């Protein structure tokens, strides 16, 4: 069994996310964790600045785990949002909505913001990372092909950067690529180290 890097060896890490991409990224970073899931209401105040929404939701999710915070346990919560011109582009509810979202993102630049909260018995560390994603113009048949074959209904903005549409449609990314996948791993690792001290 892979053990945590030496800098994190004293931590009992809980990932409060069912996202297979977040779980895969933590595993690839050699971080040992267990998954604990709880239902959390993800509404937020309408007057929040768009860059603050992901942090607000990550902290709201963290509060649902306060009863677990003892000894060396740390809980990681996160929320990833896609914004086009400061408007949230959520997860699509069906095929037509997915098509509409990808048509909006086609040929434009959008922001992906992930808010992360790391909680322990003594502190909460909340931060967010913003990445700019540039899409080329997508052809309608490409959008249909992607949605029919990859079914991105669990993804904000209706796409995964690691999927076919990301590989063939993203011109460039400014910032963390892994943030677009749902977890800014380098930044998370650096913040986690402060919990080992």
Could you outline the blueprint of secondary structure elements for this entry?
Elements: E1 12-15, H1 20-28, E2 34-35, H2 50-63, E3 73-84, E4 87-89, H3 95-105, E5 109-119, E6 124-135, H4 140-150, H5 164-169, E7 170-174, H6 177-181, H7 185-193
Parallel strand pairs: 1-2, 1-3
Antiparallel strand pairs: 3-4, 3-5, 5-6, 6-7
| Number of domain modules | 1
Q: Helix count?
A: 7
List low-pLDDT spans.
none
Instruction: Work out the strand percent.
Output: 15-25%
Mean pLDDT: 94
Helix content: 25-40%
Instruction: Quickly name the level 1 CATH class.
Output: Alpha Beta
Q: What is the CATH architecture descriptor?
A: Alpha-Beta Complex
Shape: globular
Number of distinct beta strands: 7
H and E string: EHEHEEHEEHHEHH
How large is the radius of gyration? 17 Å
Which fold name corresponds to the CATH topology? Answer: Maf protein
Largest sheet: 7 strands, mixed
Classification by helices and strands: alpha/beta
Straight-line N-to-C gap: 24 Å
What would you note in describing this structure?
With 197 residues, the chain is of the alpha/beta class. The chain has a single domain, classed as Maf protein. It has seven helices and seven strands; from the N terminus they run E-H-E-H-E-E-H-E-E-H-H-E-H-H. Strands 1, 2, 3, 4, 5, 6 and 7 form a seven-stranded mixed sheet that branches. The chain is globular and about 55 Å long.
